[in-house]
Input
Amino acid sequence: MPTITGKQYIERIDKLKTEVWLDGERVIGNISEHPAFKGVMKSQAALYDLQHDDSLKEFMTYPSPSTGELVGMSYFQPKTKKDLVKRREMIQQWAKSTNGLMGRSPDYMNTTLMALASSSELLRGKKNCFPEHLLAFYEYAREHDLSMTHTFIDPQVNRTQFYFEKNSEPIVAKIVERNAEGIVVKGAKLLATQGGITDEILVLSAGGILDEESGFAFSIPSNSKGLKFICRESFVGGDSVFNYPLSSRFEEMDSIVVFDNVLVPWERVFYYDNSAVANSFQITSSFQAFALHQVVSRQIVKTEFILGIAESIINTINISEYKHVQEKVAEIIVGLETMKALVIKSEVEGKLDEWGVMRPDSITLLVGINIFPRIYPRFTEIIQLLGASGLMTVPTEHAFQSSIRKELDQYLQSRGENAEDRVKLFRLAWDLTMSPFGTRQTLYERFFFGDPIRLSSQLYQSYNKEPYVERVKGIVEAFSLK
Amino acid sequence: MPTITGKQYIERIDKLKTEVWLDGERVIGNISEHPAFKGVMKSQAALYDLQHDDSLKEFMTYPSPSTGELVGMSYFQPKTKKDLVKRREMIQQWAKSTNGLMGRSPDYMNTTLMALASSSELLRGKKNCFPEHLLAFYEYAREHDLSMTHTFIDPQVNRTQFYFEKNSEPIVAKIVERNAEGIVVKGAKLLATQGGITDEILVLSAGGILDEESGFAFSIPSNSKGLKFICRESFVGGDSVFNYPLSSRFEEMDSIVVFDNVLVPWERVFYYDNSAVANSFQITSSFQAFALHQVVSRQIVKTEFILGIAESIINTINISEYKHVQEKVAEIIVGLETMKALVIKSEVEGKLDEWGVMRPDSITLLVGINIFPRIYPRFTEIIQLLGASGLMTVPTEHAFQSSIRKELDQYLQSRGENAEDRVKLFRLAWDLTMSPFGTRQTLYERFFFGDPIRLSSQLYQSYNKEPYVERVKGIVEAFSLK
Amino acid sequence: MPTITGKQYIERIDKLKTEVWLDGERVIGNISEHPAFKGVMKSQAALYDLQHDDSLKEFMTYPSPSTGELVGMSYFQPKTKKDLVKRREMIQQWAKSTNGLMGRSPDYMNTTLMALASSSELLRGKKNCFPEHLLAFYEYAREHDLSMTHTFIDPQVNRTQFYFEKNSEPIVAKIVERNAEGIVVKGAKLLATQGGITDEILVLSAGGILDEESGFAFSIPSNSKGLKFICRESFVGGDSVFNYPLSSRFEEMDSIVVFDNVLVPWERVFYYDNSAVANSFQITSSFQAFALHQVVSRQIVKTEFILGIAESIINTINISEYKHVQEKVAEIIVGLETMKALVIKSEVEGKLDEWGVMRPDSITLLVGINIFPRIYPRFTEIIQLLGASGLMTVPTEHAFQSSIRKELDQYLQSRGENAEDRVKLFRLAWDLTMSPFGTRQTLYERFFFGDPIRLSSQLYQSYNKEPYVERVKGIVEAFSLK
Amino acid sequence: MPTITGKQYIERIDKLKTEVWLDGERVIGNISEHPAFKGVMKSQAALYDLQHDDSLKEFMTYPSPSTGELVGMSYFQPKTKKDLVKRREMIQQWAKSTNGLMGRSPDYMNTTLMALASSSELLRGKKNCFPEHLLAFYEYAREHDLSMTHTFIDPQVNRTQFYFEKNSEPIVAKIVERNAEGIVVKGAKLLATQGGITDEILVLSAGGILDEESGFAFSIPSNSKGLKFICRESFVGGDSVFNYPLSSRFEEMDSIVVFDNVLVPWERVFYYDNSAVANSFQITSSFQAFALHQVVSRQIVKTEFILGIAESIINTINISEYKHVQEKVAEIIVGLETMKALVIKSEVEGKLDEWGVMRPDSITLLVGINIFPRIYPRFTEIIQLLGASGLMTVPTEHAFQSSIRKELDQYLQSRGENAEDRVKLFRLAWDLTMSPFGTRQTLYERFFFGDPIRLSSQLYQSYNKEPYVERVKGIVEAFSLK
Output
């Protein structure tokens, strides 16, 4: 089976009848018709359809190594630096469809799975590890073009440094039984984005665990028995694309994932009861390199979108002559070019790992992910500083369809735009930076790869500073008074 | 007639039947029952009721100089430094009821009017100026405890430096006729906050005008013929105080004010056709000193609220031991204490003006208003950095009332709080910093007194730097080589 | 004996023949004639002379409670809020003579000693504590107008969190013997500013000590046997006031203080072998309140100096029209007014302590000292950004006295100044921000009251956040779904 | 003649007897023996010697297209992207010798001249332009391995926007005569770094000139008649490498360049009396692309040096466990990797210009030069924040050679280093960030390519924002209500 179409994606998800709770009610009927999900599922479907677009097939697909049929490029294991560029082009092609607003477009999880599978040999021969399950699942996912999400963060109960949960009833998801069929999991994990609208969910321990039992990784269908997705409030503002140009299309939803004694069959367990592997696999595998390559590539497209909006506002109200305006946009340009440069460097400095996979340079990408959580919020601030009162004068679609329209046309016109286009532009800026959808996007980017402080620390610790310390040592020790 | 009650406020506004447009429809019936306005009107009513609270009367009222009846302290003309402290206590008493979230609580406009009236002598003898109209209106407002809003910003059509509107049909509101009854105004002004839910609207030219005709100031009832308020989308999230603890109560609304050949009777015209007065009156009158004294006093209470939320989050998830957490809260404390110190300094350094009114030091307050637009957005960012994933796991009231509650109780509990209180806290934080209501608050504070760049410039230009330049000159010229 | 004159100060110090080492040589002869010390001693002498200036006597002195003779106001124990203002005026009078560049002008240590003595009752009845010694020394110092320095930081050997020195030979100064005459101290303390040019040195344990033996406080004459001051390189650029307008006059010198089995006689021991007292006395005494009141008052004058230089540069090269220039100076103004406001608030909110001393509000001043280490370096950066190439074209006094002068006069003239005055101004700016003297000033302000991170932490921990947490609790608990 | 040796460089400069004024005296005798110049000339000589190092010849030289002899790689005109990498390796090889501290190492000017010459066709056929002079001079310089400096900034007399000099006696250098032999120049230019210790000086108009007469470019020998270099004060701290490890070796000196009716022979005039060419040539030629490629490559090495020093301090006093320390070093790492990535991107995106020269992408490098002036000063601040009191306890070489050494050895030891090495390290840090040499380095990087505000503006204006505006337009115009 080749890449799926958008229609296939929607039908498959609808058929699952996954247990999804929203605003105190279980979603019934086709989830693709539910107001909170229909927009984003349609956008996701459009991404799948791009794989069938003749002009893009070359970028978006490649022949399956098992069947020769065309499968998604996001599953592709790169062997050369050029392959890395191909992967980036695929990622950015998809990102352009959403302006980078879907953090969990299918390429994210497909890349993640490809990366883990590419390093499955690291699991070989280790206690309670099943590299062959991981490989088989990768192949299965690739050949069926599965949609997936994942979850690994533990519930935010107590964030003190040496906290260790002692509840009799688990809060954090853990293995409560191992039997002939598989492992049984009970408890919760935080935040599956797109939880409930994907075929599968990949579940991983968070890093830094101390107890053997918490070390596991597996994937299960979203409609597994006992699995529940409890959603936050929906941030879809409404159906109107005029009013809510972004949230009506790209609101991915986040949910708490509850495991109510969920059985994970053995063939879907990648490892369990092994804290050493759980703590090291995400770091030593190519997961970080490839996940960050996808993320940074997407964030570039999102930054382009920010730049486009900033400059459009400037044109509309004619403020490009001000040095402080120019300086603000220059900040965005600097951010954009920096992110672009880092991706390129990661590719130029890519290295073959011991299994022949070309990994982009992970440290370089780690720099990118240290930068973006700091600049993206600043960019949303710049949009607000440029838009000013224009972001307060945002009447709705209905207003433009009413008898008050002539006043709107007269008083909301601008140098660059008629009133309607101007309001559409400002609503777009508002939806990106000030709506619940927009602020959730900001929060998402702030914490995408973890707490910014932790990311700094990780960068410090993983960076090779020795050559520079040596250079200084050379100077200091060049002469001695004794 | 003494201070009004909340009930009287609501009845009076309902009776006006002001022309208010929202989402393409004219508001009909009692505006106080409209979903977009009922919350804020109730909160405003509660403020008026505080003036009748026996334990607060002493702070909130004073005997009218004309009738001896108790009128609102916000109308009080201070004569001593102690009077300034009394005014501050009144402002902060009201602000505590709303945690500083109502930028247009009645004291703001009452203060503004008091300040303008106190300097009415500046209009004496000038062309087309009517100081006696201004005084009479101040007295009338004080004795009837009028609610008011104001508007002065021009539509954001073209913000280039030397733009001059040349439309045949006016966009910016201007005087199109002067006749026996008064002046006739046509065009629009931007942003009347609370537009439509006050008795009156005070209309002033923006500063820096070039043509004589644009220089005017007047006040008219909200239901004046031809006057229309066109609202932006409402940011009330819903009626549920659980879900929308702030927007359900404090969303003040902003509207475009359209003047469709509105007649302003002469007795309500304070000045007209006088650009020199229009450009100078706001600066030379005590307007800036008193308006900023009110604003900064309110912003202090808002900052206290931010601090309370930050520390509550910290307690809830137990993160107070982290230096970077402490540093972030220390930032808020520094901001809070700075604002408090500036208000105190403005009072300690207050000076009697030539009409015997004790003005707080205006420059000191200008410093405050230069600081707040920079720190308030940062504080909302700190809330997000502390709250992290807690701001994404925010199920709704209904969820807590459904069968899924037991899962929520288990998985959303925290060290410091049960799940319900914890979610309420995080929804509060979300509504303050991430909801459309919250982001509009941020935008409001960013631009409260104008563009931040312009405020820097104003501070630079109005600050007396000479003594310090002289000190340096003394050093440089102390000796000479020649 | 009343306040001393500058001449008396110099004679007294010269007579001590303190053991001071500089650049590998022991200072011999009169230290007041040594190139590294003559400038600063002359400036210090001028401060003492101010106490005899008839027009200032009223501000600078008060009648001794023991003799009625005029003693230095810096020793004055305030009883009222007005007294706090008097103290501030004295501090700022002295600071204006040095533009705030002498961090250890005599008022700093006099204030410190006054504050410790005012709280001496805290030592009463505690193990190894001698409040009467402290009081007697305070009186002695006041009546003899002693000059003093102090030292408490330990050598920077290993700054890890749980480091505990285990050397057989002490590095950190400690008590190695207690005998009939007193205690014997061996080891070193870091950084006595003005070490070697004061009558006395006050020695205190650093905070946070763990072992009983390290808890002590005493004062001894600078020429005590076995006491050595090892100076860093001198940052006096040279004698020329043209070339080095600041370092030639205000370079205070820092030195390592070595205790080579120094005997401290009992009457000079304030406490010893008491870690509890050592850790708490600096916090519970009025030390922090008064020391910070002195420091912030001085920093205000220094900020005025910065403002004067910034504006002088702007005038000289005529750049005041640029918004980005205005914004930079506005930053300085904001800093200056903030510091001024904080001092005023600390006085307005002063409180009598249990011994009848009026303490300025310590938390408010702690805010000041959290702010200054962040803004002062920024201000020096602003000077550099404004001065630009002007800070590179700084020929010397000799150049102006040579045949090349006519070229300098022609090519270094500016709109606002002739070449000579312009170069003097830029050299002044350079000496404040770019010379070794200037950068040491910056480092000094960065760390004046300890590491900035530690100061944030201290502010967080000592600030009363409860009222605001309660306010939030009130909202969260106002309603419950159960 | 092939690349020169260090010895040849020194002899050639000594022979010139250029008119250099320092501290009011003309430098006489061999300038290479003068205390202010000997260190830097020795370092420069060492750079020339590297071209003769057998192991480096391949990187540092290439066969002259005219003679086949080996000439300096800095003169090399790249034709491929690989050539760009070769150029970078040469630049960074040299930079490593000086840790990037010599902004005017020979490759800078050689690169500049190569770039201008590569675009000489832009001058072809234009009024008063002599492309053949430029080409001939390039060839001459390459074949003789000339050392050069340049100057283009005008004296800082009046920086208001619309200032136009009206002095009868020129301040800004201008052409005062054109005769048979050449043009005669009178007036001054600001800041020739290394002025007086190079063979030649290239003189160019600053950008944005308005009058035809100010448009010129030429090169003349440093000892041309009437040419004077007036130096600022020397920032060489002294000969001791222990005390002044950097200023004793790398202080390049800046000087004002005075033209006292200097005759420039026609064969050295590249263009004159042509403001259009003067304003456009620096932008349209490959000057910016190649100059920035050199600069950013050097700044990378300098940032590595900063990183080495920061980490060495951390190791020495054992503070690597602190999150805030890690965060500060992570900032440096982010800066370093960003600069590295931008250079790589500029090479990957290089393009052949119409004359077959491979230009690195200029916009990408412009981003780099927008970043560095902001991060470098911050890095020097980080060094100070890490070093803290260690930067105050810096005794001199003599102190370590005196009887006080045993105390220094005991009290200045650190976990990581003995006292001597520790002091050497901290003196290195001090010389880089706090000495006059160090602060001049900071100022130099702040303004290397002009005022930071102007650089932002240039980036904004030259960046192609259209594709992103179009993308937004696509969204806004996708549907219309009418």
Summary: Chain B touches chain C through 65 residues (CB under 8 Å). Residues 38 and 258 of chain B are 23 Å apart (CA to CA).
